[in-house]
Amino acid sequence: MTKGRLEAFSDGVIAIIITIMVLEIKVPHGSDLMALKPLIPVVISYVLSFIYIGIYWNNHHHMLHAAERIDGSVLWANLYLLFWLSLIPFVTAWMGENHFAPVTMMMYGFIMLMCALAYYILQTRIIAKNGKDSKLSQALGADFKGKASLVLYTLAIGAAFIHEWISAAIYVLVAVMWLIPDKRIEKVIDN
Q1: Please, which residues have CB within 8 angstroms of residue 54's CB and are 6 or more apart in sequence?
Q2: For this UniProt entry, which segments traverse the membrane (predicted)?
């Protein structure tokens, strides 16, 4: 299988994940603006998860663009990532419908942690296939943001039982951290 086919398959799965998430937002039964009030937590959780899915899609694209070769272990690692990403619509809806209750915030963090771990595994499999001197390996370096994300998600899981808004703030922090443009891979590819 070529990396182009792997990327196309992944793009399709990610598009379906986003579609499932938006279908969870139910149309209100009233016609005034107050009818939207109960949907605020649902929409907030959707926006956060949409941003996360977008971050994964963007970084996945750049990572595969930097890869020169893939093998069976990369295919399985990619499926592992897609499995965890496919659970985001469930925890997003659960969290929004229950107004960010502590258990739902903890489970959201667990799924985010597993997505980050799966992405790290995929990244290491691609580097293993392409070598320590590969473009991707050079671009990632020590991968501070990736490792910091794992630590922050773990903290957010525990923080959900102290106060759910601490947990929410950590999830937003991680998203903002990744929204800041990271040109590491682009710089290496362009050279």
Answers
A1: none
A2: 12-29, 35-55, 75-94, 100-122, 150-180
